[in-house]
Amino acid sequence: MRLASGVVWADRIGMAALAIVTGFSILLLVAPSLIVLAVSIEPRGYISFPPSGFSLRWYEAVFANRQLTDSVLVSLRVAFSVMLVCLALGVPAAFASVRGAFAGKGALNAFLLSPQMMPGMVIGIASLFFGAYFAFRASDAMLILSLSVFCLPFVIRIAMARLAGLDPRLDEASANLGAGKLETFARVTVPQLAPALLAAGAFTFIEAFDNVTVALFTSDVRARPLPVELYYLVQFDSSPVIAAISSLEIGLSFLAMLLIARTVGLDRLGR
């Protein structure tokens, strides 16, 4: 009886400790975003917390700044291109990794997922040296290429997790009914992958849009994406306009997650 009572108390202490750590972690993640949102509505011309009032002047300043709006368009164009490239390459790679049977499969998986183990700065510098060696200057094409390398493992991992949970007998049934491999993949496999593809596309888009460590080394100085523009802006500007831009990026990420939650369900990601 004493042993059972001790186990119960140990479980309670463990659950309480887990709840405290989880709550503290959520606070550390959420509190900075709330502070940024609060600073963005500060009516005065300098960063202050708590705000002295409410004003949307800094959001208006963001949309009135041609350089910032141009950088947003660059980031949107690059992020959309990276998303398409990663989906086009990641889904077949995941399919080969899960359904394929060939020598060196483990080595291939390690190679495809290795960029996720590397800091973005390392990939950015490596891409810069690669471009310099082949006289491939920093440009949108270089940025899309380097960000695709960095983001590709996200698509592969999500697609692999979903493929591992699919019943291969559905593909066999499709083949028995006379469908070829491509038709089976397009009409049977892809529809089942749709939730994972939507989630992978959203995560890839957000990562490519917000990434600064890779973009800092590979973007064109005449058409800088938003994260790089913010990096330079924060060095010379102390107005809440930076908080306003950051708030808009937070809102974009929130909308993407809301879209996934409403269309797919966060509990179904990777399943």
UniProtKB/TrEMBL annotation:
<keyword id="KW-0813">Transport</keyword>
<keyword id="KW-1003">Cell membrane</keyword>
<feature type="transmembrane region" description="Helical">
    <location>
        <begin position="141"/>
        <end position="160"/>
    </location>
</feature>
<dbReference type="GO" id="GO:0005886">
    <property type="term" value="C:plasma membrane"/>
</dbReference>
<comment type="similarity">
    <text>Belongs to the binding-protein-dependent transport system permease family.</text>
</comment>
<dbReference type="GO" id="GO:0055085">
    <property type="term" value="P:transmembrane transport"/>
</dbReference>
<keyword id="KW-0997">Cell inner membrane</keyword>
<keyword id="KW-0472">Membrane</keyword>
<dbReference type="InterPro" id="IPR035906">
    <property type="entry name" value="MetI-like_sf"/>
</dbReference>
<feature type="transmembrane region" description="Helical">
    <location>
        <begin position="12"/>
        <end position="41"/>
    </location>
</feature>
<feature type="transmembrane region" description="Helical">
    <location>
        <begin position="238"/>
        <end position="261"/>
    </location>
</feature>
<feature type="transmembrane region" description="Helical">
    <location>
        <begin position="110"/>
        <end position="135"/>
    </location>
</feature>
<keyword id="KW-0812">Transmembrane</keyword>
<protein>
    <submittedName>
        <fullName>ABC transporter permease</fullName>
    </submittedName>
</protein>
<feature type="domain" description="ABC transmembrane type-1">
    <location>
        <begin position="72"/>
        <end position="260"/>
    </location>
</feature>
<keyword id="KW-1133">Transmembrane helix</keyword>
<feature type="transmembrane region" description="Helical">
    <location>
        <begin position="78"/>
        <end position="98"/>
    </location>
</feature>
<dbReference type="InterPro" id="IPR000515">
    <property type="entry name" value="MetI-like"/>
</dbReference>
<dbReference type="Pfam" id="PF00528">
    <property type="entry name" value="BPD_transp_1"/>
</dbReference>
